């Protein structure tokens, strides 16, 4: 049913004006509504007095995303790390000035890949007793794994987390961060305020990201770096440079980077980006990082050789790989509120790519 709906939506409707069809009332589900675009998008000091840092407690979920972890530690997201689509979009806009459509695409992908889109809940960490299995076990018999679960979203060649096959893919790793500091010490810019070689630049990321790929290509026998993951991983390097930078100067000091990556807290005297950062802006920064040492999408074979992927002849290869090939095809069998939410989220993911929404076609229960 969803396949047909999405097909006709993509042919007949503009993404921005489409209203998902009304679902029959079914009890317990939560209808997901994309929040309005905020007018409050200028520079501003973060956190405000209402959002002090509070350490996560034993039951609180934290995961592989330093941006979401920081927002939860400061109460911009629920402190327990169990969050809704709307809460993510609002919090990343408020805390980091991430633009609305980019935020909606990431939050939509998170919800469909690793959350419960019927209840509008996803864990920013691992599996949680607060998030039950989807209706009719539509994505298999297990509860959603949260953003910490490897595959679909969390993937290989992260900056401060190991690949799942060789170590801890969820928590901050000192040894990897030390590498990033070494590259900063070698390629960073000088600052009279924070010190020589203390400014983290594009050049730092160009060298560090390439080194991380070379390391993992050798160490991780089952490395997967398909075009969706490759794009996300260079995008995340661009997030560090652009969303963690102090909005007052637009530059990122090593000290500020450490506050976010290691301590998962906003630094003192920190201002968010002065204008919203959208997909075009982040993609351009990510491309600049990648092009210094181009790496093509692929995966290791059984002999540890890196085999390149065939190009995908589609509207946008990263969009297609993530939203079509990585999301479970069984979502097409959804009914009622879940079907309605799936349509809303699939449209939200496609929007910033300028692509027609395409129905999920990936493996179920993985
Ligand atoms: C909008 C919703 C967001 C979602 C759903 C999300 C989700 C994720 C996930 C699942 C990962 C793990 C990927 C991996 O395997 O490396 C990740 C990594 C990352 N995220 Fe987010 N994220 C979001 C927003 C943000 C924001 C606003 C920032 C920065 C301000 C950010 C910064 C990062 C960074 C730097 C990494 C890479 C960490 C590393 O490689 O060690 N994210 N995110």
UniProtKB/TrEMBL annotation:
Family: Belongs to the chloroperoxidase family.
Name listed for the protein in its UniProt record: Cloroperoxidase
Sequence ranges assigned to domain Heme haloperoxidase family profile in this UniProt record: 49-288
Taxonomy, superkingdom: Eukaryota
Keywords recorded for this protein, A-Z: Heme, Iron, Metal-binding, Oxidoreductase, Peroxidase, Signal
Xref: InterPro entries: Chloroperoxidase, Chloroperoxidase-like_sf
GO MF terms held by the record: metal ion binding; peroxidase activity
Cofactor: heme b
Signal peptide as annotated in the record: 1-18
Gene3D superfamilies the record matches: Chloroperoxidase-like
